[in-house]
Amino acid sequence: MKAAVLHSENHFIYQDMESFECQNDEVKIKVMAAGICGSDTHKMVSKWKYPLPAIMGHEFSGYVVEKGSDVANVEIGDRVVAIPFLPCHTCEYCKSGVYSLCEDHGMIGSKSYGGFAEYVNLKATNVLPIGNMDFEEAAMIEPLAVALHGVLHIQPRLGDVAAVFGVGTIGMLAIQWLKIAGVKEIIAIDISDEKLAEAKAMGCERTINPLQDNLIEKVHEYTNGLGVDVALECAGSKITQEQCLLITRKKGEIGYLGIAYSNVVLSEQAFENIFRKELTLKGFWNCYSAPFPGEEWTKSIDFILKGRIKLKELISHRFPLEETQKAFDLMINRKETYGKVMIIPNKE
Question: Which CDD domains does the annotation name (predicted)?
Fold first, then answer.
């Protein structure tokens, strides 16, 4: 099979790789769409921590072309989404059903070969049927589940006012889940006017660009001086990770979904707000619960199939498998504004 093989940081070679036969408990997926995650590009400009050569790609879908003798949950020809997380099932967190916190998990696309290839072998327990769902939409189930994991556990109340920092893919998906959860008003916060316009089109009532307006003053203006009930940090920026603490009302809740890529140093006011306002801070990692892979995945599939979630609108670029390097260069060098970038290993 052909694959985009990573040989060092941001150095991909489109080459032949062996396609292995299925084990008894595995299926072989013909990959039809694979998304590039924001964490993928960060790994290209910092340090790749996993074995090389590697085949990246943990957000992907396709259809089953081969299955092992013990597989009973899917049939050849079924359209499926891949679940990239491989829990150990033996640590105390797995035994408690808190799979996201597994202490010895595997990961397709980093610790083992992923979806930037024509075919991928996966355990049958790591695929879910998607019915007649579009493959590109199905390739976005994993980030959609990540956003839902945060919204489910921050537990917004009907009528809340929420702020979302960073309206990239995760932020835009979180906005949609907040709407479904009954949030009355959402304030989108980003330094890109183009992204803010997209957020407004997605249903955000208010937008703020902190490079142009005083963030705290604007939030107070929009909330009668109280601050927001819920703040979700989806940007992974040390600036926004602090700003959440400055705009949330007393007894408010803050959810951190963005990864920290550098030290976060808090101002005196930001830190004091945690206890003076009795804020609740929650962190959200991955998107898995019991029964594996959890309601984050099954609800995501249900809501997509019912047409309640907009995904196609978030896809900005599509590249064939042989142009994977070009796709990463676009994102890393920010050659142009982009949303979700898809790799298309096979054509229908």
Answer: sugar_DH
- The SS3 assignment for 297 reads helix
53-93 per-position pLDDT tens digit = 999 999 999 999 999 999 999 999 999 999 999 999 999 99
Provide the 8-state DSSP code for 141. Answer: H
Cβ burial of 198 (10 Å; 0-12, 13-18, 19+) is buried
In angstroms, how far is the first alpha carbon of the chain from the final one?
17
Q: Which CATH superfamily is domain 2-140+311-344 in?
A: Medium-chain alcohol dehydrogenases, catalytic domain (3.90.180.10)
pTM of structure: 0.95
Give a three-class secondary structure readout of 12-35: EEEEECCCCCCCCCEEEEEEEEEE
Distance CA 151, CA 289 (A): 14
Which residues 6+ apart lie within 8 Å of 61 measured at CB? 29, 31, 32, 33, 34, 79, 80, 81, 82, 130, 133, 135, 136, 138, 139, 141
Q: Where does residue 160 rank: exposed (0-12), middle (13-18), buried (19+ CB within 10 A)? A: buried
Name beta bridge partners: 2.
Answer: 16
What are the boundaries of each domain within the chain?
Answer: 2-140+311-344, 150-283
Q: At residue 120, what are phi and psi to the nearest 5 degrees?
A: -140, 135
DSSP 223-235: TTTS-EEEEEE-S
- Amino acid present at 12: F
Query: Under CATH, what is the fold of the domain 150-283?
Result: Rossmann fold (3.40.50)
d(CA 257, CA 62): 27
Q: Please give the Cα distance from 341 to 34 (Å, whole number).
A: 9
- pLDDT digit string (tens) for 291-309? 999 999 999 999 999 999 9
Question: 243, 267 in Cβ contact below 8 A?
Answer: no
Q: Which amino acid is at 26?
A: E
Residues 6+ apart with CB under 8 A from 110: 43, 49, 50, 54, 56, 58
CA distance 160 to 167: 19
Q: Which of 263, 230, 49 is nearest to 153 (CA)?
A: 230
